[in-house]
Amino acid sequence: MSVRVLVQQAAFDTGAETARLSSLSDHIGGMGLFIGQVRGGDGLLSLTLEHYPGMTETILNQLAQEGMQRFSLLGCTVIHRVGRLKVGEPIVLVGTAAAHRGAALSATSFLIDRLKTGAPFWKKEEFANGHAAWVDAREEDEHAAATWGQMPPSSS
Amino acid sequence: MSVRVLVQQAAFDTGAETARLSSLSDHIGGMGLFIGQVRGGDGLLSLTLEHYPGMTETILNQLAQEGMQRFSLLGCTVIHRVGRLKVGEPIVLVGTAAAHRGAALSATSFLIDRLKTGAPFWKKEEFANGHAAWVDAREEDEHAAATWGQMPPSSS
Amino acid sequence: MTGHVNILYFAALREQLGRESQQVPLSANGQSVADLLRVLRQHDAMLDEVFAATPRIRVAVNQKLGGFDTCVQPGDELAFFPPMTGG
Amino acid sequence: MTGHVNILYFAALREQLGRESQQVPLSANGQSVADLLRVLRQHDAMLDEVFAATPRIRVAVNQKLGGFDTCVQPGDELAFFPPMTGG
Question: Which protein family is it in (chains A, B) (predicted)?
C-alpha cells in the first residue's frame, strides 16, 4: 500500500518509515519528511493529545489521498500520536515519496499544514507550576491551511 | 555541534540523524528532512558521484551556516554520498530543526535547491545497455537555486 | 419516524461539560444542528452556559465536518468541539 | 616572482582530457584565469579541443568558485569542471 496512516500512542520509527517509503518504487527520486515534536519553553512539561477516534483516521486518509493525487506521489505516510507526550517527544510524522524533490517537499508542507487545522486533534498543555490549558487554534495555522485551497467535499 | 556536514561513500542512518537533530534543543518544534535517492527508469543501473574533495566540505558548511542564519535553525545536517550508487540507493540527506515547521520546511528546500547546483558534485549515469554519460545540469535546478537569491560572497 | 442522536463532546467542551457523550431523542425529521442545539440549550443550563462561553465551536455529523445548518436524522452521530489543534 | 599553479579537472573534463591534474609554470603576476588558459590552449591541442567542445565550463580558484577574470597567483590551485549536478 502506498498510503500509510496511523493514529497511535506509541512512538514511531523514522528510519523504518523512511525505508518503507523508499522501497515503494524504483521511480522515487526524493522523499520529504516532517516530524513535529513537543516544543519546550515557559515551563511546559507535556502535551496531551486528544482525538476523535474513527473520524481522525477517515480525515487523515482523505488528506493522504488528496496529497497523492495533487502531487503525483508514489507514497505517503501520516502517523500521529495521541496521549501524553513530554517535551522533546515526537508528535507527528508526515512522509512523502515522489519522482522529483519539488513534489515531495510541497506535498510534505501541504499535508502538515492541512493536518494542523483539519484533523480532529486537540492539545492540552501541562506546566511545571501545575497550570494546564487547552491550546488555542492559531490563526496563522488556519491561513497556512487555506493557502492550499478548500478541502474538496468528500463523498460519503 | 548544531551543524553536521559529511561527504562519504557509506550509507547514512536516517533514524539516527533525526534523533541527533531532535536532541539538539528543547525548543525544537519541527524538523524537515529531504532524502534524495537514485531514481530508476530507462534502463538506468547506477549513478557514480564524483566530487572535489575539500571544496565540497567547505561549500556545504557555508551553505549549512547560511541556512542556520537565514531560517533561525536550531540544527542542520547535510550528508552527501559519493562513489557508485545503484537505483534505489540514497544519495543525499538534508535535515533541519527549528522552533516552527515553516522555518524547518523552507530551510530544507533552500538547502537541497542550493546544493544541487552550488556544490561540486557530478553524476555519471550507467545503463543496462552499457551506455554511460555524465548528467547534464538541469535549467530548472538553476532556477530553483536562483529563487533563493545570490549566494553571498564568502570571506576567505 | 422517531429515534435518537448520539452527541459527543471533545477537548475543552468535554471537560467543561463534564461529559463526553449523551443520547438525545429526535422526534421529527428536518431539524438542523442549530435547531436541535437550541432545544438542548433551553433544557440544559450547563450546556447553554458552556456553549455561550466557547467561541468558534465546530460540529461534525457522522464524523464529517459540517455546518450548523446540516440536517440531522435519527441515528446520526453529532460531535461538538473547539477548533482543531493537531500536528 | 615565479612559481607554478596546480590545475585540477573534474567529471567529463577529466575523462576527456585523460588527466585529473597538471602543474603549469606561472612566470608573471597579474594574469587572469582567462590569460593563463589562453596560453595553455595554444600549447596543448587536446586541451584546446576539449575546452572548445565543452560548454559552460566553471572555474574555482583555491576551491572557491570564481570568474575567468580572477587573478591567478603562484601557488594557487585552479579547478575546471562542468556545471555541478549534486543532490
Answer: Belongs to the MoaE family.
Is pLDDT at A151 greater than 70 in this prediction?
no
Q: What percent of chain B has pLDDT over 90?
A: 88
Looking at residue C73, which CATH number applies to its domain? 3.10.20.30
Reading the block at residue D4, the C-alpha cell is: 607554478
Output Rg (C-alpha) for chain B, integer angstroms: 16
**A36 Cβ under 8 Å from any chain B Cβ:** yes
Q: Which domain holds residue C69?
A: 3-81
Total residues belonging to chain C: 87
CB contact under 8 A, B117 and D79: no
Residues 6+ apart with CB under 8 A from B126: B44, B45, B46, B47, B48, B84, B132
The total number of structural domains in chain D stands at 1
CA D34 to centroid of chain Cα atoms: 9
Cβ–Cβ contact B62 with A under 8 A: no
CB pairs under 8 A between A and C: 78
Its pTM stands at: 0.94
ipTM over 0.90: yes
CATH, residue A126: 3.90.1170.40
Q: Which of A12, A13, A14 to mutate to probe the B interface, most B CBs <10 Å?
A: A14
Q: Which of A54, A121, A154 sits opposite C85 (nearest CB)?
A: A121
Q: Say if CB A116 and CB A136 are below 8 A apart.
A: no
Is B101 within the bounds of a domain? yes
Asked if residue B71 belongs to a domain, the reply is yes
Beta strand pairing call for A75-81 and A3-8: parallel
Cβ within 8 Å, pair A120-C10? yes
Tell me, yes or no, whether D86 lies in a domain. no
Please give the C-alpha separations between residue D67 and each of A53, B145, D5, in angstroms, as whole numbers. 61, 19, 17
